[in-house]
Amino acid sequence: MMKKQLTISGLTSIAKHYVLTFALALLGIFTTQNAFAQESIVVELTTPIQSSTHIVGFDITISASATADSGIERVNFKVNGDQIKSDAAAPYSTTWTPTETGTYSITCVAVDNETFRKTSEAVTITVVEASEIKQTAFTPDETPHQLPNRIEFEHYDNGGINVAYWDKKGNNASDFRSEEMVDISTDGTKVRDIKEGEWLEYTIEVPETGDYDLLVNHQTRRSPAYAQLTVSFIDEGITFESNKVLTNTGSESFMTEKIGTYTMEAGVHVLRFSLLNFGFDVDYFVLNKAGATYEVTFNDGVGTTVKTTKADLTVDLPDAPTNPDKTFKHWETSDGQIFDENTVVTADMEVTVVWDVKKYTLNITSENGTVAVDPEQDNYEENTEVTLTATADEFYEFESWTGDYEGTENPLTVTVTKDLNITANFKTSIVFYNVTFNDGTNTVVVKTNADGTCELPEQPVQIENNFQHWETSTGEIFDETTVVTEDMEVTAVWAVKTFSLTVNSDNGTVAISPEQDVYEINTEVTLTATGAEGYSFVSWSGDYIGTDNPITVKVTKDMSLTAIYETVTSIDVLQSVSNVYPNPSNGVVNIELTQGDNAAYKLYTLSGQLVSEGEFSRKTVLNVPKQKSGMYILEIITKQGVETKKILVE
Fold this sequence. Notes:
Elements: H1 8-39, E1 42-47, E2 53-55, E3 60-67, E4 72-79, E5 82-87, E6 92-96, E7 102-112, E8 117-119, E9 123-128, E10 145-146, E11 149-152, E12 165-166, E13 198-206, E14 210-220, E15 227-233, E16 238-245, E17 255-264, E18 267-275, E19 280-289, E20 295-299, E21 304-308, E22 326-332, E23 338-339, E24 349-357, E25 359-360, E26 362-366, E27 369-374, E28 380-381, E29 384-392, E30 397-403, E31 412-416, E32 420-427, E33 434-438, E34 443-447, E35 465-471, E36 477-478, E37 488-496, E38 498-499, E39 501-505, E40 508-513, E41 519-520, E42 523-531, E43 535-542, E44 551-555, E45 559-567, E46 578-581, E47 588-593, E48 598-605, E49 610-617, E50 619-623, E51 630-638, E52 641-649
Parallel strand pairs: 2-9, 10-13, 20-24, 26-32, 33-37, 39-45
Antiparallel strand pairs: 1-3, 3-6, 4-5, 4-7, 7-8, 7-9, 11-19, 12-13, 13-18, 14-17, 14-19, 15-16, 15-18, 20-21, 22-23, 22-24, 25-28, 27-29, 29-31, 30-32, 33-34, 35-36, 35-37, 38-41, 40-42, 42-44, 43-45, 46-47, 47-50, 48-49, 48-51, 51-52
């Protein structure tokens, strides 16, 4: 066979191939690791808002949130791809002032502590000249708010950020004006989370030149007090109130506070509230002719009641009027609007009552039968006729109506003129009997059913016995199928509770007295453990824990016990560690060590019962308790092991 020679150039080609393959594999590993690292980075622009409009020459706050498994080193902010700032500390933000109108794409790049990067989704904004944005009042027809008036703070002007308002960070918690950045409460009724430097504007129309009271409904929580408000016609260079300190209300309630009385020229103006500090929320403000109040006349068709407006231009409603034939519904203005405790009153006015047809309820009670109601409704207008048809259950027949109608007519037609309560009564020719269930402690009386049987009470319970069944006086079992033909008493039949006793004994035996499959509750059982050859009893575990042997346990539940033994280390007779004498003896035995200084001893009967134990040094005298004659097992425990000897007491 011809062999092909491998040249240097061929070797080089193969090496290049493997190096390239290895490099590509490494590149795949690094690419995968890079992808995993990038996945752990979460970055998002939080301001400005997507598709928002801004004014050229005004600062725009750009902020972002960023997290990563390894931590964030910095966030780079970019406008149209050009980096404008890098921020290394959360919260990550910067400001940027556009100098030209146009459309801009804003992004941010989060760099983690392992230098991996991830770019946020872009936010596109539009920058225009201030003159291009139309500012209008937030009213149905965008016309100015007419004074006097109560204006909700969340009804700031249309026009957007830098035009109708300025807000540092969008935290709008509601669905109301959700496209705006102003922080509105979840229920959409208050401006909250106020920050230093924010402002809101409202286009108003002053009907005539004069003095006007300004009141603000707010909740202020800062202590000590800080200046919260400056109020102005900002475009006209008129400041009505500067650095106003609001009364601290605490965090539980709002209050309506007078800010001041100011002279205002007739015409349309833009009113700005400059918000100077955090720690307060605002609900609404009131602008009213200085000292002016208005009267509301409530006309119920019989008489009138006059109420005067409060500081917030609302009134307290009078008590709801009554009418014997009608039910009060609400108050209504001359143009058909509902008038309630939240209606803003800006002129003297009269409101009239709106009545509803009086309605009543019809409540039917029926036992041992049903009642069909026609028509069946939750309530009925006055003088409605309703037909009631009673149908008896099996074994029953209709007897009469009682309650707000009494009689035997069936079907029955009643005219509803008030709330009615009517009961259908049924009777039966069947005789019912009482069964008394006696469990030896308590009795329960049960009435028989129409078929002569009765429902059994709950099974009685005793600590030492198990319930078996109910039994008649003649010894018959009584159950839910027994037909009763007279009043009677039945008694509970009990069986004494029994339990099992399980004894585990590896490396020895346990004598059980008495030995049975089951034991009645509170039976006393004696257990005697005897170790197998080479083992000695140590202790009990399980439902009894201890070292006594024998033991007597009282059976009060299913019980499981384990006898535990330990290995006896034998000592060669030729290396005996002790002398025991005399043996036999009269019950007094001497123990002397032949090796070592300290030892312990245990004396057992042949059945394994511990008779005596103790510790000694060099020698001791053992007195057999009660000097009972017989054979005993003596264990001498030393460092060398356990020496076991038999001694005889005569």
